[in-house]
Amino acid sequence: VPSGPDHYRTLGVSKDALAGEIRAAHRALARRHHPDLVADPADRARAERRMATINGAWHVLGDPVRRAEYDELRRPPVPRPQSAPEYRSDAFQGVAVSPAVGCALRIGPVVLAVGLLFAILIVTALMTGDGNRPPAFQVGQCVHLHDDGMEVVPCITDSSVIVARGVAGTSCPMGAIAVVLPTRTEQVCVAPSVG
């Protein structure tokens, strides 16, 4: 709905009034509300404002071009037609397949996913070993220490013995030295052989 004064209402005529009706309404209102007819200054100011409104309405509606423009501006906008949302069906909706193929298309991805998970489980189990393999260095084994690390050797008089095994950073028994294993989370305590 357009804003601004309703010039038809100001002059008291209908929107389809003829030019003669508009002119007659303007003259009648001008005679009734003309400021020269009022003596009181406050009433005169009100009459001047009212007369300005009446003359403004006459200025627009009295000229056919301005009236047509005014009518066009006051016409409510034509609602744009709303298109219904386009329905898109499944691209394969009309394709006919045998029941076996339909079942394979539904079940196939599930079987493939389960098979892939099973294969990952098997490969992981094979790569991590059986878990029952004894550690390379156990308490009581004799070892030979050298610059590259240590190795298990037969127990002879001058070989060192593993006296403890534990988490890296724990203290060893008196007289033993800590050797951190390649895992870096474990260590063995090695004591020199007595005898």
From TrEMBL:
Residue spans crossing the bilayer: 107-127
InterPro entries noted in UniProt: DjlA_DnaK_co-chaperone, DnaJ_domain, J_dom_sf
Keyword Kinase recorded: no
Protein name as it appears in the record: J domain-containing protein
PROSITE patterns: DNAJ_2
Keyword Signal: no
Domain named J: residues: 6-74
Organism in which the protein naturally occurs: marine metagenome
Pfam family for this entry, one: DnaJ
Gene3D superfamilies, per database record: DnaJ domain
Key words, A-Z: Membrane, Transmembrane, Transmembrane helix
